[in-house]
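--- STAGE predict ---
source: upstream dedup step, 1 unique chain passed
mode: sequence only
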Amino acid sequence: MTKAPRKRNKATSAASNDSTLPDDQDLEDISLQENPALATINVTAVEVPELTEQEISDRLHLERKVERAFFEAGKALMELRERRLYRSTHKTFEEYCRDRFSYTYRHVNYLIAGCLIVDNIKMGTNSSQNERQDEMGTNSSQILPTSEVQVRPLAKLEPQQQPGAWQQAVEKAEGKVPSGRIVKDVVQQIMERTKVPNTYQIGEVCQILAKDNPELRGKGGCWGIVNHVGEFSCTVKIWDGEYSIGLKHLKSYNYLPAECKQMQVICDRISRVYSDSLEETVKSLLQLLGKLNRPYLTAVEEKLLTLLESEYGRIP
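--- STAGE serialize ---
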């Protein structure tokens, strides 16, 4: 019996008889398949044209916009808040920012505080009036923050300290925009050098000073009871809750121990009555009691507070 020829031999024979491909092309393809390392790659050089003067100007203008994005946002939010331009659609600025921008109240405060810090940096580092300024009003050689995170640590310092701290951070970043971590390290070093011991005591009555701190907006002048003493701050209980407040934003009333205990009782009574669901009139009254600058209630104030305790079932 004669066996049928195998397909491999047939294919080989057909390939060997195919004379349609050029010999050089065959050899090149085979050499590439057998040893790709010997392949030669030709790269065509493309000439990149230099930027024109107008393009350079446009680039700088757009870069400034990107760098100042958070600064402009903070400025705009501050104006919206101060002029109450949200009042036609929302009762509070907090609700407006949440609905319109999906911003938390804390984020809004960070942006507003950040733009104020940038203003301090600009004023503190504009050392020469003869330096050329760009269309944004900043010196062309000035390194400014590009993110709110970079300036957030500076909020712990006094306004007059912020420009110097920022300049130190720029130097540590070798003349570039420093990261938030670098700024935080510089601020920490400054605070360690100028560290003031925390002399407040638990149970002490203090007044809140809200200057230069948007997070304490509406709390300026309120009194509170210190219930935790930290290294750089105290936790203070006031009429509507507890807040962690830096030492520079507190001022002791220097009450006698008996007066402090009396204020502690008043604070507890107000806190038991207060809730977010109360009518605005009741909230306003409790807020006024939370801003007393004396260690006692008058007869009328005592009656009003007792009435509220009875009305809302908050009598212990």
